[in-house]
Each structure stands twice: as structure tokens, then as C-alpha cells.
Write a structure and sequence with these properties.
By secondary structure, this protein is an alpha+beta fold. It is about 15% helix and about 35% strand.
Length: about 230
């Protein structure tokens, strides 16, 4: 039987295409385990995206257009220590998107999204550390039948923070995301999300991110590549 998935309008990033992290997470589900997903074209909304099994993972197509490719992967680096609760709370109030945001309707970081309509993850700069962070208490809207947060929403939660980690990045789109989930958090669990720059060259920006329990235990790690759009 042919495999496919559809991105509901709720899970948009830009207004007319899927949220990169959510889409990567859905595609990674066909791989199973830690994965790396490369986005090749804007993922369309409200239409079936076909899945093809390959020797090293899966590819996703809409008609003749290649949308994305996913393969098993691992992340070798160790996440830095989580910032403390006071620094996290202060950082969230400094979210740059409150004042300058290209996609206010983004599922992950859109300021125009309501509670349980979007994730509302607003990461701001942490004092005296080269990272952004926020607190997150995931609701039942993002859970599976067992009360654990579904993987695609963990992918989405660690997507946009890797953009905001670069202070001087302008308008950009996610090109690649790798993620390794050690343990899925539960509904209502107090969490910390942090992201930090790894490198940049020209219009390419690499970032790392992690999902922590309030105790500092690392639940998931991500590494992202963003491509800044050319000025129009």
C-alpha cells in the first residue's frame, strides 16, 4: 500500500507551506529513531505527500516535485548545561519576534497563534551565554494516546529556536534538521528549550538545540541548517 501524509493548515510555517520542524518530524517517523531530514522544496498544505522507501531512508514527493529526504543519523556532540530557571524566564521576555517577525502565523514561534493552536515557543537571549532559551509546558494538544508528546511536535519545538539563535540572521528557511530524542516528555512537564549558534558562512547558518527537563536532564538534541533568503 502506498504511504503518504498530509500537512494540515494548522501546521504551517510560512503562510502557504508546512512548518519545517513538523514536516521533518513526520518524515522522520517513517525512518524511525534518530534521523536527518533535508527539505528540498516548500512542503504543500492540505494535500497528500507521497512517501517512497529508499536504500537509506525515505523521500517525499508531491507530484513530480521532491519535497524532502530523510535518513537515519546521529548527533555526536553533548548538549551544554541548561540555563537556570531565572535566566530562562528573563530570556523569554526578550524574544526578538515580539518586535520583528516575518511569519507571525508560524506554528512553532508565531506570536499570532493562540494557546493549543500553535506551540508559542518564544526563545530569547540568555544573559552572559551565547544561546536563546524559553520554558515550555506542553499541553495535551500535542500528546499521543499514552500522554507523551508526539515526536513531530518535539521536532517542531526545536526547529524555530535554531533560527532565533543567530542574532543577525535575516529572513531564512530551514534546509536541514537532524534530531535525536532520548525520551519524550509528558503532558504538563516543566521543560526548557535552548538553542545556540554553531557556525555561519555566507547565507548558511548552523545551530544546535536541546530540550531539557527543569532538572537539566537532556531529552532531545537537534542540529539545524538555515539558508538566509537573498534580498529582493
Amino acid at each position: 500500500m502506498a504511504e503518504s501524509f498530509t500537512i494540515a493548515q494548522q501546521f504551517n510555517g510560512p503562510p502557504d507551506s508546512g512548518n519545517g520542524g513538523y514536516v521533518c518530524g513526520k518524515l522522520a517517523g517513517f525512518v524511525g529513531g534518530p534521523a536527518i531530514v533535508t527539505l528540498r522544496a516548500p512542503p504543500p498544505l492540505e494535500t497528500p505527500i507521497q512517501i517512497t522507501r529508499t536504500n537509506n531512508g525515505v523521500s517525499a514527493h508531491h507530484g513530480d516535485a521532491l519535497i524532502a529526504e530523510a535518513a537515519p543519523a546521529s548527533i555526536s556532540w553533548v548538549a551544554p548545561a541548561a540555563p537556570n530557571a531565572l535566566d530562562v524566564d528573563a530570556a523569554a521576555k526578550r524574544f526578538r519576534g515580539f518586535h520583528n517577525h516575518f511569519f507571525t502565523g508560524c506554528f512553532t514561534c508565531g506570536t499570532a497563534r493562540g494557546i493549543d493552536d500553535g506551540l508559542r515557543i518564544f526563545t530569547g537571549p540568555v544573559a552572559q551565554r551565547d544561546m536563546v532559551a524559553t520554558a515550555w509546558i506542553p499541553s495535551a494538544a500535542w500528546a499521543d494516546a499514552r500522554g507523551a508528546i508526539a515526536p513531530e511536535f518535539i521536532w517542531a519545538a526545536l526547529d524555530c529556536p535554531t533560527f532565533w539563535a543567530h542574532e543577525h540572521i535575516n529572513r531564512a528557511l530551514l534546509a536541514r534538521l537532524a534530531l535525536d530524542i532520548s525520551e519524550a516528555p509528558r503532558v504538563g512537564e516543566a521543560l526548557i528549550i535552548a538553542a545556540w549558534p554553531l557556525s555561519s558562512e555566507g547565507r548558511k547558518y548552523n545551530s544546535g538545540a536541546a530540550l531539557y527537563r527543569a532538572s537539566g536532564e537532556v531529552l532531545a538534541r537537534a542540529e539545524a541548517l538555515w539558508i538566509e533568503l537573498k534580498p529582493t
